[in-house]
Amino acid sequence: QVQLVESGGGLVQPGGSLRLSCAASGFTFSSYSMYWYRQPPGKEREWVASISGAGSSTTYADSVKGRFTISRDNAKNTVYLQMHSLKPEDTAVYYCKWRSLWGQGTQVTVSS
User: Fold this and answer.
1) Is the dihedral of CA 99, 22, 80, 48 positive or negative?
2) Taking Cα atoms as reference points, which of 1, 5, 13, 27 lies closest to residue 104?
3) What is the spatial distance between Cα 89 and Cα 93, in angstroms, rounded to a whole number?
4) CA angle, 24 then 48 then 96, to 5°
5) HEC states along 35-83?
6) What would the pLDDT profile of 37-79 be if each residue is shown by its tens digit?
7) Count of CB atoms within 10 A of residue 63's CB?
8) If we measure between CA atoms, which residue out of 98, 2, 89 comes closest to residue 38?
């Protein structure tokens, strides 16, 4: 069956970096765009970044542009979110998404 499994979250100090991974299975991964979203505590889920099936096109929310990079490895059926210069306001549960399917999420906490 289709599955999305995120990993890589954790506690990091402001200014630090993390790389999130989302391993996908059950569909032809390279044929589809993939998305990262996040849900800060007490707020609604928001879109963070998108990447095309071939990885040639990426888009970002203004709040993360220049700090986050979305990428994918179609041989490994995995999409990544590299996060640099993290801020306390980046604290959230981060989810990857394929069509209408969500992963279980991974917690990112930015705090000193």
Assistant:
1) positive
2) 5
3) 12
4) 15
5) EEEEECCCCCCEEEEEECCCCCCEEECCCCCCCEEEEEECCCCEEEEEE
6) 999 999 999 999 999 999 999 999 999 999 999 999 999 999 9
7) 13
8) 89
